[in-house]
Amino acid sequence: MPELPEVETIVQALRPHLEGRRFTRYISRWAKQAVPSTAAVRRGIVGRRITRLWRRAKFIAADLEDSGGPGRRSRGERAASDQHFGGHLLIHLRMSGRFDWADRPNHKRRHIRAAFDLDDGRRLLFCDMRKFAKIIYTTELDAVTGQLGIEPLERQFTATALERALYGRARQLKPLLLDQTVIAGLGNIYTDEALFQAGLHPTACSERLSREEIERLRTAIRAVLRKAIRHRGTSFDEAYLGGGMQKYLDVYGRAGLPCRRCKTPIERLRIAQRGTHVCPNCQPFDGKC
DNA sequence: TGGTATGTTCCAAA
DNA sequence: TTTTGGAACATACC
After folding, report:
1. Are A85 and A73 spatial neighbours (Cβ–Cβ below 8 Å)?
2. Where are the alpha helices (DSSP H) in chain A?
3. Quick one: pLDDT at residue A252?
4. d(CA A129, CA A100)
5. Which nucleotides of B are covered by protein (CB under 7 A)?
6. For residue A231, what pLDDT is reported?
7. How many Å apart are A170 CA and B14 C1'?
8. I need a surface site. Which of A9, A62, A140, A224 has the fewest CB within 10 A?
9. What is the pTM of this model?
10. Which residue stretches of A99-198 are H helix?
11. pLDDT confidence of residue A84
């Protein structure tokens, strides 16, 4: 389901309810989602206070305070470590992970895979129809997020940074943009949207872009993500609701419909095993790798 | 029944 | 070596 804008929206919504709270219980109904194990996640988070809730790529991250809890360390160990010795809870929603409050009336709630109880008496449910999501506890943040590429909304994402990502390798644009070790947070929808807005074909070769095309692509990526966040993401089925960006998508899900810019019917292709949407007129195909 | 789905990973093939 | 294709993970819907 969720790409960067949806994850950002979820983090913003959860933050006021989670920061400062302490986990009092962790219940798991699906063992394989926990990394490295259900017991390790429970040991890592129960009794610990959340000091910060944030996002890295498509991960929801909770920094945990080093105090109380069964995993308490000695002063010497603490001094030798980073400032988050309480570790980090990282959640990746993959295709269908989502959160729901247990006290929110919803009689059709299904696919509950875990529950997080908090010290204010509330229970945060984690639902995941397809069981692809991951709930990770780690004291080494870098072991999980270290391979991720640049955050496209951060300052460092300059035209020069994008040029470095595109050059020196001959890859099709779409698979390259989906590669989380290059740019972190783009998924299938916003990659298609950004390529349309930049007027670039998804199979265009990365190292053959001009500086002007790179600048256009960078601008398009940022504009698409910012607009999606402004609209609280794209709503689909029950996997993610509450956003309004679906009304503003130019190509994704619009196969056969007229391009909003030139009226040419939008085409649906298969690229890197992903449904891919293009306007054949606005995104001319000009040579592959 | 078969095809499809907002994601990631692993392996084989090119 | 690098890049791409296919399958796998698991479930629901059309």
Report:
1. yes
2. 4-18, 38-45, 75-79, 141-145, 159-166, 173-178, 188-198, 211-230
3. 96
4. 13
5. 4-9
6. 96
7. 15
8. A140
9. 0.94
10. 141-145, 159-166, 173-178, 188-198
11. 64
A218 sits in the region (left: phi over 0; alpha: psi -120 to 50; else beta) called alpha
Adjacent-strand bridge partners of A98: A127
Helix axes A159-166, A211-230, angle to 10 degrees: 110
Give the C-alpha separation, A135 to A35, whole Å. Answer: 6
Calculate the CA A211 to chain-centre distance: 28
CA–CA dist A279, A289 (Å, integer): 20
List residues, Cβ < 7 Å, touching strand B.
A 1-3, 6, 57-58, 92, 94-95, 130, 132, 178, 180, 187-189, 234, 236-237, 239-240, 273-275
DSSP for residue A162: H
* Closest listed residue to residue A112, CA positions, set A42, A29, A33: A29
Ordered mean pLDDT values, 10 residues apiece, chain A (289 residues): 93 97 97 96 97 97 78 51 78 95 85 97 96 96 95 97 94 96 96 97 95 97 97 86 92 95 96 94 85
User: Is-contact A235 A165, C-beta < 8 A?
Assistant: no
Which amino acid, residue A26? Y
Q: Which of the nucleotides lies closest to A192 (Cα–C1')?
A: B6
CA A268 – CA A255 distance, rounded (Å):
6
Q: What pLDDT does residue A69 have?
A: 46
- Nearest Cα neighbor of A118 from A55, A49, A29 is A49
Query: Which amino acid, residue A98?
Result: R
| Catalytic residue numbers of A, as ranges | 2-3, 58, 274
